[in-house]
C-alpha cells in the first residue's frame, strides 16, 4: 500500500511540478559566431540594464516552429531573428505581432528612427531590420589550385579550379548563382527563374559541376568544410568566414562577385506573454550601439548612426560596401517559388 | 505456459457438471477475464491517448485539409456552380464575392495562409494573392461587391485565367487524396485523370530507403552470423564475457555512436589518417556525408539487433546434429549449409525483420552523416514537417511508410510472434 | 575454426572501436575531432580536461542534464507502473484478444520515430501539450512501455496465475496480492524493464525535436544541434560520459539477470 502511495505521489510530482522557470523570455536566432555577437552586444547588455532574463535558443530558419506555436496557442518563443524571406510569409499568415515602428528610439546622433534606418529595415510592419548580411563564396588560399578565383564563373569552372565546392542544400542562392554564371543579367534573374526554361537553364548549369559538389545543411558547417579540406570553395554567410579569418587566423578569402544579400529582422511571435518586454528588447537591440556590435561578424548595421561605432578598417568588409557587386534576395520570388523549386531541387539531387 | 483454465477442458467438464455449476463456472471465467483485462486497461487507455491517437491524427491529417474551405467559404460556394473543365473563368459575380472575402482576409492578416495553399497548386500565385489582398484592403467593401471582378483583374491579370480558379476550387475540398497522389508522384489533370507528376521524387526516395534498409539487413546478417556462431559454440564463460562487447554498443546512445562515426569518417578523421599513415591512400577519401556513411553507421548501430536473436537460436541448436551428419560421411561445409543453416532460420528471420523494420524508418543517423545521397524517406518527412510546412504531404508520406512497416510487423508477428521478442 | 575466431574478433572490433575511439579524442587539447601529432606521441600537453569542464560550466548543458534525468525518471515511473500491470494481465491465459492487444501495446517500439513524432506534434499541439514537460514525459512514457511489457512478460513466463487466484481466494486484498505474491517473482523483470524505459527516454531525440520547447532541451537534443551546428569536443566529452552511464546500466542489468537465474535455479 505504501509503495502504491509513493508511486502516486511520484506521478503527481512529475505531472504537476515540472521545473518552473519564472520571469524570463526566449529569444531565438541562428547561433554560431553570429549568435555569440548578439549575445555579447544585444542580450547581455539588455539583461544587465533591465534585469530581465533571456533564454537564448538556436534555430535554422523557417517558420514551421513558429506556426505550430501560434496555432496551438502555446507560444514558447517570444522574439525571433528571422530572414526576410520567412518574415514576409510569417507576417502575412498572422504569425507575428505588428511592431510599432514609431516607438523606435532616435539614433545616438539624434537622427529620428525613420530617417536613421534604411528603408528596407522598416519595410515590413512585423519587424525591425537588424543586420545586412550576405551569402558569398570563399576559398582556402592554401588548398586552392589554379590561381585566385574572383568571379562567380570561377565557382563553376572546375577545369581551372579543381576540387570540391560546398553549397547549402537548398535552391535559394544556388539557382541565382547558376543563372548569373550562365550570363543572365542581374536585373533579370528573378524573371528568368520564374519561367520553366529559366529553371531548366539553372539546373543545367548546376549539372556541369554536380560531381564536384558537397552539400551542407547549416551555415556553421561552411567554415568547417573549408578548414578540414572537405571543400576548396564554400558558399557561406559572410560573417562565418570573416569570423574564421579574424578570430582563428584561417587562410580564407572571400569573393564578393554575385553575393546575394538580405536583411535579418527581429520580430515578435504572435500571442507572446511577454509582448511589452519583447518590444523593449527589440528597441534596445536595434539601437545604434548594439547594432554596431555586429561588426564582430562583419554584418552591417541597418541604421546610419551605428556606423559611428564601426571600426573604419572593417567597413570595407561589410556587405554594405559591396552592394553594387551583389544582388538583393527576393522575398516575394521565394515565397512564390520556394516550395516548387524545393521539390524540383530535391528531384535534381536524386538523379 | 501451464493451462489450468476451464475453456480448454470444457468438453470433458460438460458431462459431469450440472447446469447450475456450468453457469457458475462461466461466471467465474468471465470474472477472471475481466480481472486480466482490468490489469491491461490502464496501459491500453494510456497508449490509446498518448500514442494511437497521435498516429490517428496523422492519418486523418493526410486527407483532411480544411484551410481553404475555412478561409473563403463564400467564394467556394459560388464556385460550386462553375464548371472547371470549361475554358472560361467564373463569371463576375463569383469574382466579386471573392474580392470581398480577400479584403477581409488581408485585414485579418490571413491572406498569407490562402496564398500558401493556392501556391502549392499553382506556383507563383502567392505573390498574386498577397499583392491583390494588399490592394483590396484599402477598398470599400460595397464597391468590391459590385466592381470586385474588374478591380481584381486590374490589380493582377492572373485573375483572368482559368488555372487559378481551378486550383482554388480544387483546394477548397476539405477531404482530398491529393497529398497521397503527390506522395506517389501522381497528379490529377484538368480532365480529372490521374497522370504522373512533373517532378518525380518520392517513389525514388522510397525505393532508395528500401535499398539502404536491405543493404543494412544483408550486412548485419553477413557479419552477425559468424560472430553469433562463434559465441554460441564458445564456452559459456567466454561467451558471457564477449557478449559484453555486443551489449555495450547496444546500450550506448545512438547519438554517441553517430558522433563516433563522424569522428571516424570525416575528411581528416581517424579512418583517413590511418589509411594515409599506412600509405594505402595518398589523398583522403570523402566518406562522411555519403550513402556509405549512412550504411556503415547504421550497420554498426543495428548489428546487436541481429546478433541477439541469432545467438539465442544458435545456442539452442544441439551441436550433435552436425557431428552426426559428418560422422555419416557429409563433408563439413555442405553439412553446415544443409543441416545447421536451416536450423538458424528462425533467428535469422527474426533479426532480419527487426533490422529491416527499424532501418527503413531511420531518421537521426542519415540526417547527421548522410549528406545528400544518404537521405531516406524519414528525412523528407521531417523536411516537409519543419521547413516546407506541407504537413498534409508529410502526413501522407508518413502514412505510406507506416503501412509498409505495419505490413512487415504483421509478417513478423506471424513468423516470430511479437511476444517472443527478447531484450539483452 | 581459426578463421572463424578471427572473423568473430574482427566483428567485435567493429562493434567496439567506434565507441572506444572517442575516449582519447575527448581529451584533445585542440578543438577538433581528430588525433593531433602531440596526442600520438603521448605528449601530456596535447591532452586536456577542458571539454569536461565546459560541460559543467555551460548553462545549456546543465539544463539539458537536469532535464534528461527529470524527464527520464518521470517517464520511467509511468511506463513501469502501467507496463507491469499490463504484462501481468497479458500473461494470463484467459486474457481476451491477447495477441491483438499485445501487438498494439508493443507498436510504439516498431513505428518509426519520425511518424510518432509527427503524429504527436499534430495531436499534442491541439491539446496544448507541445512544449511542456508533461507532453514530453507522456510521449516518452508511451515509447518506454513496450520494453517494460517485454521484460516483465519474460519474467512472468512460468508464473502460475492460480497463485494469484489462491491469494485472492483466501481473502487477501488485490493490492496485497500484487505486492506480496506477484512482485517478488517479477522484480528482476520490472527493474530491467524500468532501465530499458529510462534509456529509451534518455536517448530519445526525434520526439524531443518536434515536441519539446527550449525549456525541455535534453542531452541528446543538445548533442543533435551541436553536431549539426558547431562540432566541438564538448560533444565527445558528453558522449564519453554517456558511454560510462550505459556501461553502468549494462552491469546493473547483467547483475540482476545473473541473480535472477541463481534464484530460479535455487542457489540463493
List the helices and strands and how they pair.
The complex is a heterotrimer of chains A (351), B (424) and C (268).
Chain A: H1 2-16, E1 24-29, H2 32-50, E2 53-58, H3 64-72, E3 79-83, H4 84-92, H5 113-116, E4 127-140, H6 152-155, E5 165-168, H7 174-181, H8 189-193, H9 196-207, E6 213-216, H10 221-228, E7 233-237, H11 238-248, E8 252-268, H12 275-285, H13 288-292, E9 300-301, E10 327-328, H14 331-350
Parallel strand pairs in A: 1-2, 1-3, 5-6, 5-7, 8-10
Antiparallel strand pairs in A: 3-8, 4-7, 4-8, 4-9
Chain B: H1 10-16, H2 19-63, H3 67-71, H4 73-79, H5 92-107, H6 111-121, H7 125-137, H8 141-155, H9 162-171, H10 178-183, E1 186-188, E2 194-196, H11 202-233, H12 236-251, H13 254-265, H14 270-277, H15 291-315, H16 320-327, H17 332-360, H18 364-369, H19 377-386, H20 391-415
Antiparallel strand pairs in B: 1-2
Helix pairs in contact in B: 2-20, 4-5, 5-7, 5-8, 6-7, 7-8, 11-12, 11-15, 11-17, 12-15, 13-15, 15-17, 16-17, 17-20, 19-20
Chain C: H1 2-25, H2 37-40, H3 50-57, H4 59-91, H5 98-110, H6 113-126, H7 133-156, H8 161-169, H9 174-203, H10 206-211, H11 219-228, H12 234-264
Helix pairs in contact in C: 1-12, 3-12, 4-7, 4-9, 4-11, 5-7, 7-9, 8-9, 9-12
Transmembrane segments (chain B): 34-56, 212-232, 244-264, 292-314, 335-364, 393-412
Protein name (chain B): Putative spermidine/putrescine transport system permease protein
Pfam families (chain B): BPD_transp_1
How would you characterize this protein structure?
Chain A is an alpha/beta fold and 351 residues long. Chain A has 14 helices and 10 strands. In chain A, strands 1, 2, 3, 4, 5, 6, 7, 8, 9 and 10 form a 10-stranded mixed sheet that branches. Chain A is globular. The radius of gyration of chain C is 23 Å and the shape is globular. Chain C has 12 helices and no strands. Chain C is mainly alpha-helical. Chains in contact: A-B, A-C, B-C.
CATH 2nd-level architecture of the largest domain in chain B = Orthogonal Bundle
Helix content of chain B: over 70%
Please give the radius of gyration of chain C in angstroms.
Answer: 23 Å
Strand content of chain B: under 5%
Mean pLDDT of chain C: 89
Looking at the structure, the CATH topology of chain C is MetI-like fold
How far apart, in Å, are the first and last alpha carbons of chain B? 22 Å
* H/E element sequence of chain B: HHHHHHHHHHEEHHHHHHHHHH
The residue fraction in helices of chain C comes out at over 70%
Largest interface, per-chain counts?
B-C, 94 and 100 residues
Write down the overall geometry of chain C: globular
Oligomer state equals heterotrimer
CATH H-level superfamily of the largest domain in chain B: MetI-like
Total helices of chain C: the number is 12
Number of helices of chain B: 20
CATH superfamily descriptor of chain C: MetI-like
Task: Outline the biggest β-sheet of chain C.
Answer: none
Domain tally of chain B: 3
Family (chain B): Belongs to the binding-protein-dependent transport system permease family. CysTW subfamily.
Protein name (chain B): Putative spermidine/putrescine transport system permease protein
Membrane topology (chain B): Multi-pass membrane protein
GO cellular component, one term (chain B): plasma membrane
